[in-house]
Specification:
Elements lengths: L1 H23 L5 H34 E2 L4 E2 L4 H18 L1 H4 L6 E4 L4 H26 L1 H11 L5 H4 L1 H28 L5 H6 L2 H14 L9 H25 L6 H28 L5 H26 L2 E3 L4 H8 L5 H25 L18
Antiparallel strand pairs: 1-2, 3-4
């Protein structure tokens, strides 16, 4: 009876200690839940992004008045596009609270073919962007305008504040575009060091220049929905590039959940802004060159973030401190505590039986003669 009670208690302790240890270490049972949540967020964010981008593109084509730069009053499609974008953005923000800490890697492996192609494609677009802007600055009419707005003795100086800002930001944008190309080439090759972290600031500067050039372009009304959506998308891309750059600094600086959320938000807003802007350009609704350029930039960011997020979520790499056990559990089946209890009990029972059998097989006889230490051993 005592042995049964003791063995039963031991089995209970063995069965009860393992879940506790697994819970303290972020046990394997957490992994399928965390992985499932990440997959759900990626899928729903992609569906909402495609739906919002498609509806907004149709709204630009059929319900946008390019004269004043606004949607037709009372049109259904613009309101639906805004609603889908808002719902998608709010849903993505909830991932900050619903995705468990430690369930995403702090040292992800981005060395995949899709990431390489996305990086090279983004670098090519940035080189093209820089060359186009250099060409714009070197045109004769641009040079004359710049001379006039910087000449304090001319009347154009008094009214050329926005033109001066545009020239300065364009010059900075040229440098940022070529620097962004270097950054994307570096990340396509999978390099992660202090230098790659430094050049990782160029895409952030490029997005900042895009916001400034769009905002101070007085040929488009200040509160135009196309201009505002473009600026929101560029802001989202800035946040995304900021948290991506933290991976290149060190694992301690990485913020996996914020990176995941910012990447999904950038994909949503950049696809909505970029696709609708390009659709507006081909339909003739959007004629401003700066808005078209930023639409191409947003599409580039969308494909780049999509490839990087896919590698980030499906990959190896070093998991977070609270999620190492969870990451292992995604590839290996969870241990069965009942099976462990059964094995432990069987082992204990076999051990007791062996001891008992050994005792019966060699009973001690007090009358038996003692062994002779000088006797030769068996050959």
């Amino acid at each position: 009876m005592d042995d049964d009670i003791r063995n039963g208690t031991g089995a209970e302790n063995a069965g009860g200690a393992e879940p506790a240890e697994a819970a303290e270490a972020g046990g394997s049972a957490v992994a399928p839940v965390a992985s499932g949540k990440v997959a759900v967020y990626r899928l729903t964010a992609a569906v909402l992004a495609v739906a919002a981008a498609a509806v907004r593109s149709l709204a630009i084509i059929f319900s946008f008045d390019s004269g004043p730069g606004y949607f037709v009053e009372g049109a259904f499609l613009p309101g639906l596009a805004v609603a889908l974008t808002a719902v998608g953005f709010i849903w993505i923000l909830t991932s900050l609270f619903l995705v468990p800490p430690g369930s995403l890697p702090v040292q992800p492996d981005f060395s995949t073919g899709k990431v390489y192609f996305a990086g090279v494609f983004a670098a090519f677009i940035m080189i093209s962007d820089g060359c186009y802007r250099v060409y714009g600055l070197l045109r004769s009419d641009s040079i004359e305008t710049v001379r006039a707005v910087f000449d304090r003795s001319s009347t154009a100086y008094l009214t050329g504040r926005n033109a001066r800002i545009a020239f300065i930001m364009t010059a900075v944008c040229v440098l940022a575009s070529f620097g962004s190309a270097l950054c994307f080439f570096t990340r396509a090759e999978g390099k992660k060091n202090r230098i790659s972290a430094l050049v990782g600031l160029f895409p952030i500067i490029r997005a900042t220049c895009g916001i400034a050039l769009t905002h101070f372009d007085m040929t488009v009304t200040m509160n135009s929905p196309v201009k505002m959506m473009t600026e929101f998308a560029l802001m989202a891309s800035m946040v995304f590039f900021l948290y991506e750059d933290r991976f290149d600094i060190s694992a301690e600086k990485a913020r996996p959940r914020l990176y995941f959320t910012s990447a999904l938000a950038a994909q949503l807003l950049c696809l909505v802004s970029g696709l609708s802007g390009i659709a507006g350009y081909f339909s003739g609704a959007v004629t401003n060159s700066e808005l078209v350029i930023e639409s191409l930039f947003c599409i580039t960011v969308f494909f780049y973030a999509l490839a990087r997020t896919g590698a980030f979520c499906g990959a190896g790499g070093k998991p977070g401190a609270a999620g190492e056990e969870a990451a292992d559990g995604e590839t290996a089946p969870a241990a069965d505590p009942d099976a462990d209890d059964t094995a432990a009990g069987a082992t204990a029972a076999d051990g007791e039986t062996a001891v008992a059998e050994g005792t019966d097989a060699a009973p001690s006889d007090p009358d038996a003669p003692a062994a002779d230490p000088d006797a030769p051993g068996d050959a």
